[in-house]
């Protein structure tokens, strides 16, 4: 008959040995794959080549990599065997990947007694339809100092979905738990690590296009986000297996500088890759033949004209417009003021809704959706065209246009 302590140990063992079918967080596994657990999975920037390399490894290649030295942070880490005062597990996690349903895969792990005295260690696990664990070396219940026991894990996948298991080994104190993970196929798209756009003039856009292909086994749905002054089209793509899509990176700078930014590729399943973007901007040889225009006294009701010539001695075609303000920062400040004005309009509409609802014209929620959509649309449509030069006494023609080299 089992005593109370043995019953609790048995309950803990059964709880820890259940099969998990939840999808494993790939971004939390990447630091483990790179053998550096000090990396923060939330701010980790993974190059596409690194991501593809790690996801395309076979089970044997992954296990060979897992036995390499690991730079570990303080405390226990997800997906790794918990630190134990008497035993050391190597590798600290068993991972099966790139597997095919219906086939059997084998992996081994070792448990070594790191204490200075003999310790009790026993494998008491019931086989299940996916995983089974057996001794590889001679079975013994007590392990001498410095001696290791070898175990064989057999994995028989029935589908390509993620799965997990905890191998629990009973000891005199806390059990030794060894995580076993099965990684199903991940979305794989062959993005470049680096995209370099040619140097361009300030406020003159340039772009570069490239093709990507879904080289994985599952459809890939992903979005792309660039740090300014870069942008990307399209921003969202769903790519079936083997299909190709064209991506275009755009660049337009407001000031002269060298730019180093990143584009984040985020899959719907949570994986992320980071593509480096570089470009630079310079001032072009574009000038006016005068910095001021002086008009002589003019009779009321009559007009006078002066001609100003704009020269383009650069190598690109430019677009020009006459604006109210002298710098891009002043333009931006004015646009922000206009956007703030739309917020006040939104507040006024909220107050106006009380009267409309009282007269049974429209419900509060419906009215909120209408004016919120209108305000958002108007805010997005704001551009420098709303800041074109305007004066009651002066007029410029043409107000905007295109100037060839």
UniProtKB/TrEMBL annotation:
Signal peptide positions (record): none
Record's GO cellular component terms: axoneme
Sorted UniProt keywords: Cell projection, Cilium, Cytoplasm
Coiled coil regions, renumbered to chain: none
Record Pfam families: HYDIN_VesB_CFA65-like_Ig, Ig_CFAP74_1st
Domain HYDIN/VesB/CFA65-like Ig-like residue range list: 187-275
GO biological process: axonemal central apparatus assembly; cilium movement
Subcellular location(s) of the protein: Cell projection, Cilium; Cytoplasm
Protein name as catalogued: HYDIN/VesB/CFA65-like Ig-like domain-containing protein
Protein's organism: Cuerna arida
């Amino acid at each position: 008959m089992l005593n109370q302590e043995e019953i609790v140990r048995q309950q803990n063992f059964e709880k820890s040995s259940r099969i998990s079918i939840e999808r494993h967080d790939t971004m939390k596994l990447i630091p483990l794959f790179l053998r550096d657990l000090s990396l923060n999975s939330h701010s980790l920037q993974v190059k596409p080549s690194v991501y593809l390399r790690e996801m395309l490894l076979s089970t044997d290649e992954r296990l060979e990599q897992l036995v390499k030295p690991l730079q570990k942070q303080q405390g226990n880490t997800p997906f790794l065997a918990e630190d134990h005062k008497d035993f050391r597990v190597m590798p600290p996690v068993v991972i099966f990947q790139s597997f095919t349903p219906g086939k059997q895969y084998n992996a081994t792990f070792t448990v070594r007694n790191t204490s200075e005295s003999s310790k009790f260690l026993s494998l008491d696990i019931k086989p299940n339809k996916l995983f089974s664990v057996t001794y590889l070396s001679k079975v013994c219940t007590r392990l001498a100092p410095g001696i290791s026991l070898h175990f064989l894990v057999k994995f028989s996948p029935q589908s390509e979905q993620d799965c997990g298991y905890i191998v629990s080994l009973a000891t005199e104190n806390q059990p030794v738990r060894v995580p076993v993970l099965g990684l199903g196929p991940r979305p794989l798209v062959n993005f470049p690590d680096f995209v370099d756009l040619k140097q361009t003039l300030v406020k003159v856009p340039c772009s570069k296009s490239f093709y990507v292909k879904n080289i994985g086994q599952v459809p890939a749905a992903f979005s792309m986000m660039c740090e300014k002054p870069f942008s990307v089209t399209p921003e969202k793509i769903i790519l079936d297996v083997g299909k190709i899509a064209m991506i275009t990176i755009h660049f337009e700078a407001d000031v002269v500088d060298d730019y180093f930014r990143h584009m984040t590729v985020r899959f719907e399943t949570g994986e992320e890759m980071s593509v480096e973007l570089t470009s630079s901007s310079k001032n072009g040889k574009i000038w006016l033949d005068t910095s001021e225009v002086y008009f002589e006294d003019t009779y009321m009701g009559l007009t006078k004209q002066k001609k100003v010539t704009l020269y383009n001695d650069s190598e690109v075609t430019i677009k020009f417009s006459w604006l109210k303000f002298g710098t891009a920062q002043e333009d931006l400040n004015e646009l922000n003021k206009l956007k703030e004005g739309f917020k006040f309009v939104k507040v006024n509409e909220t107050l106006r809704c009380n009267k409309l609802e009282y007269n049974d014209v429209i419900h509060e929620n419906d009215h909120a959706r209408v004016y919120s959509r209108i305000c958002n649309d108007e805010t997005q449509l704001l551009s420098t065209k709303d800041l074109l030069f305007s004066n009651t006494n002066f007029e410029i023609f043409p107000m905007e246009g295109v100037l060839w080299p």
